[in-house]
Amino acid sequence: MRKSRYSDSQILAILKQNENGVSVPDLCREHGMSSAQFYKWRAKFAG
Q1: 3-state class of 9 per DSSP?
Q2: What tens-digit pLDDT sequence spans the chain (47 residues)?
Q3: What span, in angstroms and rounded, lies between the C-alpha atoms of 12 and 18?
Q4: What is the model's pTM?
Q5: What are phi and psi of 15, to 5 degrees?
Q6: Per-domain residue ranges of the chain
Q7: pLDDT at 9
Q8: How far apart are CA 24 and CA 14, in angstroms?
């Protein structure tokens, strides 16, 4: 299985930024990921 580019703590920090009002497109552009990846993480970690 492929190793993730982001650690769990980095993912949680990105999700926290979104909760604090940063838009999803801005986060995706800043961190170099797709919006689909963001929503997968949100479903997995912010449940």
Answers
A1: helix
A2: 788 889 999 999 999 999 999 999 999 999 999 999 999 999 999 76
A3: 10
A4: 0.85
A5: -65, -35
A6: 8-45
A7: 94
A8: 10
What SS3 class is residue 29? helix
Best CA proximity match to 46, nearest among 20, 22, 11: 11
Q: Quick one: pLDDT at residue 3?
A: 82
For residue 38, give the nearest of 20, 12, 3, 9 by alpha carbon. Answer: 12
Single-letter amino acid code for the residue at 14? I
- Give CA 40 to chain center in angstroms: 8
**12: Cβ contacts below 8 Å, ≥ 6 apart:** 45
Task: Please identify which residue in the block is written with the tokens 């997995």.
Answer: 44
